[in-house]
Design goal:
The protein is mainly α and 108 residues long. It has a single domain, classed as Winged helix-like DNA-binding domain superfamily/Winged helix DNA-binding domain (Arc Repressor Mutant, subunit A). Helix content is 56%, strand content 0%. The chain contains five helices and no strands. Helix 2 packs across helix 5, helix 3 packs across helix 4 and helix 4 crosses helix 5. The longest helix is centred in the N-terminal third of the chain and has 16 residues.
Length: 108
């Protein structure tokens, strides 16, 4: 058995964050509104979609279903996101994105 405490706490944190910021997955036409400064220029449109869904609290399975991708492909998108944002976990990536205004165009 593995300890899922950290994973459960991360999902609770993401759900709490999503109450403060209304997010929806970006459409192909609106990707530019997610890029609010040059530090995110390395993220691809698909990586922005994945990060947006992570910020909404979706897990790998749900993201795969929503974007019609395999779970492996979703994981393969997450790893470059973490590397490009210089963070180690999905929660850190979402937190970093909020702190640095990546979702500034989506605030209510």
């Amino acid at each position: 058995m593995r300890d899922a405490t950290t994973e459960v706490e991360a999902k609770q944190l993401l759900q709490s964050l999503s109450r403060f910021v209304e997010l929806s997955p970006p459409s192909p036409e609106s990707n530019t509104e997610y890029v609010t400064n040059g530090s995110y220029s390395d993220l691809s449109p698909r990586e922005l979609e994945v990060l947006s869904l992570l910020a909404q609290g979706y897990g790998t399975d749900n993201i795969a279903d929503r974007l019609f991708l395999s779970k492996t492909t979703v994981r393969n998108h997450v790893q470059p996101i973490l590397a490009k944002l210089d963070v180690h976990t999905r929660v850190e990536a979402v937190s970093y994105a909020f702190r640095n205004g990546l979702f500034a165009g989506r605030r209510g």
